[in-house]
Amino acid sequence: MAAIGPSSKIVIVGSGVFGISTALWLARSGYKDVTVLDMQDTARMAYDPSCVDSASADLNKIIRFSYGSEIEYQRLATEAAKIWDEWNLEILTAPTNELPERLRHGDRKLWWNVGMLRMSCESDLGDFEITTLDNMEREGIREFQFRTDDDRDVTRARERGWAHKLDPCRRQDRLGTHKAVLDSTAGFVYAYKSCAWAQHLARKAGVKMILDPQRGKVVDITTKSDQPVVHTADGLRYTADLVVVAGGGWTPSLVPEVQGLLETTAGSVANISIPKDRPELWERFAPENQPVITWGSWQGKEVYSLPRDENGTFKIGWRKTKWTNFEDVREQRISVPRTAHVTERKETRLPIDALNGIKEYISVNFPELVPLGITSTRLCWYTDSIDNSFVVDFVPGRPGVAVCSGGSGHGFKFLPILGREVVKILEGRGSQTVYGHMWRWRSSSEPMRNGLEEGEQGPRVLSKQTMATKADWTFTGQ
Ligand SMILES: Cc1cc2nc3c(=O)[nH]c(=O)nc-3n(C[C@H](O)[C@H](O)[C@H](O)COP(=O)(O)OP(=O)(O)OC[C@H]3O[C@@H](n4cnc5c(N)ncnc54)[C@H](O)[C@@H]3O)c2cc1C
Q1: Handedness of CA 167, 173, 174, 176 (dihedral sign)
Q2: pLDDT tens column, 150-176
Q3: Which helix (H) or strand (E) holds 385?
Q4: DSSP assigned state of 442
Q5: Which of 50, 218, 369, 471 has a CA between 20 and 30 Å from the CA of residue 440?
Q6: Residue 94 and residue 85: Cα distance in Å, rounded?
């Protein structure tokens, strides 16, 4: 394929984190003809998770910089943090009428450095946590981590104003044990507001958007005279120099060649609504007092929660099992999203195992929320890769078609920076960059490939699960 240049016609499929970040960085790098297509009107609905189905259209996402031994992701997250800080400042100081609608009301801050408490569900921290802390010592970032059972750490936490976040579940008093590490560098971003902001910046930089269930929906990508042709649901065709498929969980159904490298899976999310007229609860779960919490990671629980938002929504996620949903697509069996709005077969329920895991987390750690019950649930669909690393590369045998996906449950934090690295890959410089190498088209002969080896025979298939109903949302009988 001929190298792309500033006048190349570039079509990006998908206005989630991967598509918007790519569009923004292309436009800022001088590309003049960039169009984003999306089958959902993410502009009008402003990525509101109550009406948009995508991994990026969510209430909030965790931002962490500690990546264990995966130093390249740690460095990229640290670079992203500088831009998250800049975006916070830009939004705070911008005249209200210059902000996208979504950011004109309520909290204007995208990125909140509220800390992340990694709680053990056992009576010791666990080997993984100890190794992580050792790695941090070597990297010179151990001082920002506070072990709840280390007096020097607790003193440092007190001096730096973090002591009130060391045991927000009052576990030591209630359960007689509390082993945890507070990471004071981490926190969360408001996901829907962040996407709305990035889309606003991309438009300002000159990106065109077609966000519509017919005009923006890509139904096929073919090749004519070595150039990709995008077919949309309204019957139109767009010939481009480059098509970048950033379709999140829909990527494997548009580009079936990614089978074996990417798989569409779903995480399980539940919300509890905290009433404003309960001042004690309202205060406790506010970002000022509540960190992001993970419970029993690597110990078989794998639950997390984020502080309540300005409307009182307290989000809990369960990531022990990522569900699959195989259907016939282009004469293959491919896992595809099954969501609340945009898919033919709708789904908002969670498998009962996921709901029970979330209820156990609440019962053990936040018994005061038990009387409130669960308010809503959601399956959040995304793409996992064979090794949890992203996939950004040209599709072999498809001239001018690239994929940009494989967020594997940790892509959101890179929204401000991801596109910078994607542009280098699209310009053919991927082999010279560390991320180009990590995100290349690849295969694996390992027997364990992040669950992708299971396919439709595996136990994670949604149709094999007992689904929870609203009656299961209460904690009666627990
Ligand atoms: C439950 C859950 C929790 C997560 N938590 C975190 C976290 O705490 N921190 C973090 O950093 N990351 C997290 N992630 C990962 C992060 O959300 C994803 O990596 C990221 O949002 C993926 O963005 P995307 O652009 O690839 O896909 P999406 O956001 O899904 O966007 C894809 C877009 O493509 C559009 N599209 C698809 N097919 C077509 C088509 N045929 N035609 C037109 N448009 C199409 C869709 O409408 C959609 O808007 C989490 C993910 C999930 C699911």
Answers
A1: positive
A2: 999 999 999 999 999 999 999 999 999
A3: strand 376-385
A4: -
A5: 218
A6: 14
Q: Does ligand 1 lie within 6 Å of residue 392's CB atom?
A: no
Tokens linked to 123: 């009576």
Which residue carries 């931002």 as its tokens?
A: 63
User: Taking a C-beta distance cutoff of 8 angstroms, is the pair 234, 56 a contact?
Assistant: no
Which residue in 40, 130, 101 sits closest to 343, CA to CA? 40
pLDDT at 1: 57
* pLDDT for residue 136: 83
The structural domains of the chain, ordered by start, are 9-82+191-262+386-454 (3.50.50.60), 116-187+265-384+461-473 (3.30.9.10)
> 127 CA distance to ligand 1 centroid (A)?
31
Instruction: Determine the Cα–Cα distance for residues 190 and 60; give it in Å rounded to an integer.
Output: 4
pTM above 0.70, yes or no: yes
Tell me what pLDDT residue 128 has.
Answer: 83
User: Please, what's the largest Cα pairwise distance for the chain?
Assistant: 71
3-state secondary structure of 275: coil
| pLDDT at site 351 | 98
No. of helices (H) and no. of strands (E), the chain: 11, 22
Q: Hunting for tokens 């010791």 — which residue is that?
A: 124
Predicted local distance difference test score (pLDDT) of residue 143: 96
User: Which parts of the chain register pLDDT below 50?
Assistant: none
Write down the pLDDT at residue 447. 87
Edge-to-edge strand order for the sheet containing 227-232?
218-224, 227-232, 237-239
Whole-number Å distance between alpha carbons of 362 and 446: 37
**Is the CB of residue 102 below 6 angstroms from any atom belonging to ligand 1?**
no
Could you give the angle at which helices 17-28 and 191-204 cross, rounded to 10 degrees? 30
Per-residue model confidence (pLDDT) at position 135: 82
Residue 412 in contact with ligand 1 by CB distance below 6 A = yes
pLDDT of the residue at 132: 83
* Tokens, residue 426: 């699209």
Contact call for residues 79 and 415 (beta carbons, < 8 A): no
